[in-house]
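Continuing from yesterday's entry. The apo prediction looked reasonable, so today I'm repeating it with adenosine-5'-triphosphate included to see how the binding region is handled. Same sequence as before; SMILES copied from the compound registry.
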Amino acid sequence: MNDSRESLPEATEAPLIVDAEFTETEEIAGSPILDSAERVVTEKPSNPMDLPPSLPTPEGRGRVVTVINQKGGVGKTTTVINVASQLGLRGYRVLVVDADSQGNCATGLGVDKSRVRTTTRDLILNPESAVNARHATAVDNVHMIVGDKTLIGLEQEMLRQLGRERRLNDALAPLLPHYDLILIDTPPSLGIVSVNALVASDGLVVPVQTEYFALEGLALLSGTIREVRALLNPSLGVDGVLMTMHAPTTLNQQVATELREAFPRLVVEPAIRRNIRLAEAPSHGIPIHLHEPNSAGGQDYRDVVSVLERRWGLER
Ligand SMILES: Nc1ncnc2c1ncn2[C@@H]1O[C@H](COP(=O)(O)OP(=O)(O)OP(=O)(O)O)[C@@H](O)[C@H]1O
Ligand SMILES: [Mg+2]
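Holo prediction written out below.
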């Protein structure tokens, strides 16, 4: 754990803040909904399934990990909420950055979005807002920067900006010594906001639903990772491939077997079982480990975090 965190001001307490004014979030006129097939880079990788392993975290700062898969609904946000929370409960200092305009991390961590004034959009456009953009959550030791609908349209706005791929990286830099882990949730697309997350990251966690199209989607992600490594962040690698919404059907088992064969060193065990408790926890504004810690989902995320804790070099 990092010890050099005393000088950072306390995170703004939301939803616990009482003095925050309600401010309507700004709508960006005419901004298109992001195309989930959008890609910033287009070269074909030579081996479409190659996922490069990651490197250890540099000394003196927290590890930045992005949870990414351009396929929608595979468990990215559920993973961010519950991995962050389990680490928070273990005493690590964790910052969640929600880079998705759906803003679901806030709900799942008990943060009232309507009362938050500084979001991930501000963080990307004004890196100096980083310290004040942090909010306390329902979980001790877990802070977050809230994503919301103002992220829609940011891609268009950023087209005019120099160094647009590095803005999140630059904004997070002063926070890194104060946390053990910075966990970034991404939208189901590989646009410029996701590329910003890749550029800011040491490692990636890729949740994959053990369903038929799982492996196909990974080729696209692999190509993007390769190009970000070549152009923007040579040390980017994958920390883990996480199997999600796993059920004991023949198809699920077959896909899990394929993933284990394709990525023997990257697959994180156990597979996260399909479990209704994981789906209902966000409606209570708490993670699984405060909602139903002994449910199948609670157990699986606890076990997965123990594996990731070692891979991330966190354990004391
Ligand atoms: N292991 C699980 N068992 C049952 N339901 C789950 C599980 N994991 C996630 N879910 C549910 O599946 C839905 C999609 O999950 P989630 O929002 O985490 O996916 P996502 O990849 O973040 O989606 P998006 O691409 O839209 O951001 C949610 O309703 C969530 O509660
Ligand atoms: Mg999500």
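Comparison notes:
- The domain at 52-310 is CATH 3.40.50.300 (Rossmann fold).
- The two ends are 7 Å apart (CA to CA).
Will overlay with the apo model tomorrow.
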